[in-house]
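Extended Data, record 18S rRNA (guanine-N(7))-methyltransferase
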Amino acid sequence: MSSCRRPEHTAPPEVFYNDEEAKKYSQNSRIIEIQTQMSERAVELLSLPEGQPCYLLDVGCGSGLSGDYLSEEGHYWVGIDISTSMLDVALDREVEGDLLVGDMGQRMPFRPGTFDGCISISALQWLCNADKRTHSPPKRLYTFFSTLYSSLSRGSRAVFQLYPENSEQLELITTQAMRAGFSGGMVVDYPNSSKAKKCRFKNMKGKSAKKGKDWIMEKKERRRRQGRNVRPDTKYTARQRRPHF
């Protein structure tokens, strides 16, 4: 057992992610890097149509780091989070998506068929804890999954990255997701590492796409069209760098 307490055992998310904690998500380069990598992996598993902007939902969007990646990929998005401090940081950062305060355990307040897909990074495990006497984790999970299922367009997918506490928690989440209509399974990245292991629920398996020079050049050109600052192309662009030890 780790001596570090899990955040969801410390306080409810709207309390844990206060102003001080929220600032870390805009100032800590390591957090930004990890969040971006997980967002990239989640979008990869969504298997969205190539070259086609989609309308996506980011559940537990926080300060908008995942949304930044969605915008870079040319997608439109809506983010929902229970922490006003995190959303304030997102507003200060002038993210491109629309932001909404909400408790995902109550319901997803969107019309049926609104979104082309959904991602959620490090948020779903919070629903497995009862922060109030009236909270029932199974009921809150089912409410979340059933209303999310309704808000997705036909054939679209949802990918949830989470840090499960134990196998019982995974079973609880999977059971309620299937009750709500979702199908699919779980992908475990870094299964042999207790520190780096991450679980992702999705409804189909996908292979990792190699990010070659053409992909990088296309991404840079897309960012230029969006008016973003992009480094000039050189002979070193997209060249594989030697690892640093």
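Summary. Residues 22 and 86 are 5 Å apart (CA to CA).
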